[in-house]
Amino acid sequence: MRILLVEDDRIIASGLEYSLTEEGYETVVCGNVRSAKEKIENERFDLCLLDLTLPDGSGYEVCRLVKEQGDIPVVFLTACDDEVNVVMGLDMGADDYVTKPFRIRELMSRIKSVLRRYGKSESAKSVFAFGPVRLNTLEAKVYKDDREIPLTALEYRLLLTFAANEGQVLSRGQLLEGIWDVAGDFVNDNTLTVYIKRLRDKLEDNPQEPALIKTVRGLGYKLEGEKT
C-alpha cells in the first residue's frame, strides 16, 4: 500500500517515513507542491498525508489535485487547528485533520481508520485464530469456541497488538505503546499487568497456566497457539 507524504520539514518527514515503513507502507516523500503534483499525475497512491503549509503553496492545492485524480483518501497534517482551516479542508474532501504535534501511534490509528472507510486494508488479514480463540478485525469481535467474548476497548486493543505480532516477544513498553491511544495516560506498567490478567481470565482454559498469552521471563510476553 502506497502513501504520499508531503512535508517540508525534513526532520518530521524523515521520522514519518521511517514509522510508515515500519508499519509496512511504501512511502513516497515530497517537500513541496511542485514535486507532489508531479508524483500525483504520474503515480498511484492509496492515501495522501499533506502538510498544510508548504514553501511554494499549500496542502489545499495538493488536496484539490488528488481529488481530481480519483477517490483517494487525504489526511492533513498541520499546526493550524482553528475552525476555519478545519472546515475548509473537510469541505475540499479531506478525510481527517491531525494537529501537530501528534503522537505516531495516534496518526497510524487515524490512517488505518480512514483506509477502512474506503474499503482498503493495510493488511489482507482480517481474522486471526489461535487455538479456540478467533479475532475478527472487521467485526471488532473476539470468539472462543464460536462464543463471543466481550472485551473492553483496551482489552481488545491489547489482544490485537499481540495478534499482529504472533510468536514475537513483546516488551511491556511495546505493549503500552500499542494501547496508549485507547486509554491515554491512564495505563501504566502496573495496570498493564492487570489487563493481561483479565485477558487470560477471559480467553485461557486455565489462566493459572496460560497456553496463549505466555510470559517470557525478563523480556515480556508473547502470543502463541495452534492456528485453527
Automatic annotation (TrEMBL):
One of its GO terms (biological process) is regulation of DNA-templated transcription. InterPro entries: CheY-like_superfamily, OmpR/PhoB-type_DNA-bd, Sig_transdc_resp-reg_receiver, WalR-like, WH-like_DNA-bd_sf. The modification 4-aspartylphosphate is found at residue 51. It comes from the Bacteria. Residues 125-225 bind DNA. Pfam families: Response_reg, Trans_reg_C. SUPFAM superfamilies: CheY-like (SSF52172). GO terms for molecular function: phosphorelay response regulator activity; transcription cis-regulatory region binding. Residues 125-225 form the OmpR/PhoB-type domain. GO terms for cellular component: cytosol; protein-DNA complex. The keyword Ribosomal protein does not apply. The keyword NADP does not apply. Residues 2-115 form the Response regulatory domain. PROSITE patterns: OMPR_PHOB, RESPONSE_REGULATORY. Keywords: DNA-binding, Phosphoprotein, Transcription, Transcription regulation, Two-component regulatory system. May play the central regulatory role in sporulation. It may be an element of the effector pathway responsible for the activation of sporulation genes in response to nutritional stress. Spo0A may act in concert with spo0H (a sigma factor) to control the expression of some genes that are critical to the sporulation process. This is Stage 0 sporulation protein A homolog.
